[in-house]
Amino acid sequence: MLRHLLREMFLLIPLLFFVSIVAFFLVRCLPVDGATAYLNSIQVPITQESLSTIRKELGLDEPVFIQYLRWLGQILHGNWGYSYQTKRPVLEELGRGFSYTALLTMATLLWIFVCSSVLGITSALHSNSIWDHCVRFLTSFLSSIPKFWLGFLLIIFFSLKLKLLPVQGVGTWQHLILPSFTLSCSYTAIYTKLLRTQILECSQQPFIFYTHTRGFSKRHIMFHHILPNTLPSLLSSFTIHCGSLFSGSVLVETVFGWPGLGRMCVDAVNARNYPMIQGYILFLCTLFVGINLLSECLCITFSPQYRQEKLQ
Amino acid sequence: MTSILQVENVTKHYQNKVILSNLSFSVPKGSCCGLVGQSGCGKSTLCRLIAGLEPPTSGSIKVMEQFVNGIRQDGAVQMIFQNSLEAVNLYDTVFGIISEPMRYLFHRKSSQCKEDVVHLLSQVGLPSDYMRRYPRQLSGGQLQRVAIARALAAKPKLLLLDEPLTGLDLSVQAQLLNLFTELKEQYRLTYLFVSHDPSAVSYLSDFIVTLP
Amino acid sequence: MKKKRLLLPLAPLLLLLFLCLMAPILSPYDPNQLDTVSKFLPPSTLHPLGTDYLGRDLLSRLLWGGRTTLGYAAMISIFSMAIGTFIGIFSGWMGGIIAKAVIKSSDILRSFPNIVLVMIFMTFWGTNMYCLSLALILTRWIWYARVSSTITILQKRRPSILASQLVGCKTSDLLIHHIFPAILPQLSSVFFIDFGHTLLAISGYSFLGFGVLPPQAEWGAMIRDGQNYLSHPEMMVWSGLCILIVVLSANTLGDYIRDLWEETHI
């Protein structure tokens, strides 16, 4: 497996290069010239003189290839530029945003794990009962509800009417509850449905019937035979959602005033904060590639079929 | 023209596997050639080569004295497949399936084909009200008859029968074998009958080619 | 599968579609008509759902907003479906590298957060509704392409294709009469589910301030207007409820079509 991982990491290097080229050239495709944008941000009047000075300073008069290499060198040394809005280093801002997003994501994953296990297993065990129908309706409901609207409803109910939880912002662990719960809802719906289907399908298999005849208790069969067999498909779904979870949920962060990566992206786009946008693209793609690698490791570890497929 | 089909030194490779090796035989007009061999020895592959779907790696195949170079545009070579459900368009009615050759080969309109479709259905032993049915509403044996009717509609000279009796009841197999015999006489067809069932092959065929 | 079950999701969807389509006739007021004296009025015979913070009638805004939201969602879904199906069938039929590229790209896009791609697109080309629609079409066509491509590849292998080629069918006939009918059931299922997702996306972006600009009425924009006045929840409750009903109906319809197809084919 180590050999496979090393090979995958090796293949990632050209991909990351490609990503850096895309990030670099995207900003060069802007309708507004880089020098003009910079002068706008530092509020210096735009004249021929100031433009040519800035161009020389920023190295924009050099050939594109040289500019790219210089930019790449800076990136690798940790200099990702400065945000037009806060004047602080982009990497620092992204790091801060990511730490908040990571916290939110961890809490969300906890909600997803707890809720979908409980709902999925209980509805599968009592399939076609009233509880099962309720759970199935709930999953349809949760996958159709607009996240931002749900967030506001929860705020109105829990924060304004019942005054149990804070409305917005960060600070205490109570600030984490509502945003993470809101974010977890649609994923809980997906995983509950998936878990229920997988458990029901697995229970029909002949080998489960034989475990019954061998005298094992229902609990043992569920936890030692059925659930491990549901892992592969759950993990492969997880790899798909992993990326979007970690890159920050723009809507939920905006509703709850959570200063994560998602909200940073919205603010940067609104303010045309190009160094920030460029840094965000680069950061996100690298993160995305890293997370894919990690989830591939998870899949290989926990899913024998996947392992066989990949390592044959 | 004495041979409808002439296979000369045909070899077929798929990547590194040799499927057919230096095969030669010919089939005279009006006869039935049985093709037998173990599963996976290339019988279906040979049918696809004769139909013109793929070229052989080396060697040549002649149908009606012409070299096979892609799928024939005159419908002279038709094929009956093993799984009739896979061989018909599931989203079309029986009428649509049987009239397909008439519409595409002979450029006739749907409205002009009705009488001929009824005639063909009676030839293969199916009632005319089956025209409006969909393939899923028919049994395996009935669907195979529809496939035969479609093949006949193309006015073929050579009929490739690629294990047409597989998966059918013995009584249905017997009925189909009799049908094949009747149609061969009536339409003066030449058959290449591929099967791994020796009794069926010996019943229908005039001579047998065995693939190693 | 009882056909009656189809009524349950179809009825509210068609009803809302009809009501919003009839907005010019049914709407009691102009949706942008300001009346600062009548702010935050409770529901009454004059204003069945009340008024918002600028005195605009909520029912009128709901109906007209529905026209905007549903209209754009339908347009984007239809365009994505057309482009995606065409490319999917073409790539599936050609096979080889083209088909593999389509499937691989759709795998990557599926896990990459679409919202980021759309925002990046809007940074460079503008944040108005046309750019948003284009960005959404560019990110959504690939779902349809994947479904079409996968099914085309499976169908291409069937002996029925060879049989039809032997009776003179040309490639175009095969694609229209054999391949396309096989894709249609799955495609319709995906269309309804995608319609729901697109609707959520449009209202989400409008909520963030992209896409539909004020004062134009739109369901997501109404929720954005309401976020500063949480003590008057009626401003955002009705539009959110409408979004929920439409998306729930669309999802259920999509699942129903898929289950129906699976039942007849397994």
Describe the structure.
The complex is a heterotrimer of chains A (312), B (212) and C (266). Chain A is mainly alpha-helical and 312 residues long. Chain A has helices at residues 2-28, 34-41, 48-58, 64-76, 90-125, 130-144, 147-161, 174-203, 206-213, 218-246, 250-256, 261-271, 274-302, 304-311. Chain B has 7 helices and 9 strands. Chain B has a 5-stranded parallel β-sheet, with helices on both faces. Chain B has a 4-stranded antiparallel β-sheet with strand order 2-1-4-5, with helices on one face. Helix content of chain B is 34%, strand content 26%. Chain B starts with a strand and ends with a strand. Chain C has 10 helices and no strands. Chain C has helices at residues 4-21, 23-26, 58-94, 96-111, 114-125, 129-156, 159-166, 171-208, 219-226, 234-265. The radius of gyration of chain C is 22 Å and the shape is elongated. Chains A and C meet through helix 6, helix 7, helix 10, helix 11 and helix 12 of A and helix 5, helix 8, helix 9 and helix 10 of C.
Number of strands of chain B: 9
**General form of chain C:** elongated
Assembly state: heterotrimer
Structural class of chain B: alpha/beta
Task: Tell me the series of helices and strands of chain C, N- to C-terminal.
Answer: HHHHHHHHHH
Distance between the termini of chain C: 14 Å
Sheet of most strands of chain C: none
E-strand count of chain C: 0
Give the strand line-up of the largest sheet of chain B. 6-7-8-3-9
Give the SSE layout:
The complex is a heterotrimer of chains A (312), B (212) and C (266).
Chain A: H1 2-28, H2 34-41, H3 48-58, H4 64-76, H5 90-125, H6 130-144, H7 147-161, H8 174-203, H9 206-213, H10 218-246, H11 250-256, H12 261-271, H13 274-302, H14 304-311
Helix pairs in contact in A: 1-13, 2-3, 5-6, 5-8, 6-8, 7-8, 7-11, 8-10, 8-11, 10-13, 11-12, 12-13, 13-14
Chain B: E1 3-14, E2 17-28, E3 32-36, H1 43-51, E4 58-63, E5 66-67, E6 77-80, H2 84-87, H3 94-104, H4 114-123, H5 140-153, E7 158-162, H6 170-187, E8 190-194, H7 198-204, E9 207-210
Parallel strand pairs in B: 3-8, 3-9, 6-7, 7-8
Antiparallel strand pairs in B: 1-2, 1-4, 4-5
Helix pairs in contact in B: 3-5, 4-5
Chain C: H1 4-21, H2 23-26, H3 58-94, H4 96-111, H5 114-125, H6 129-156, H7 159-166, H8 171-208, H9 219-226, H10 234-265
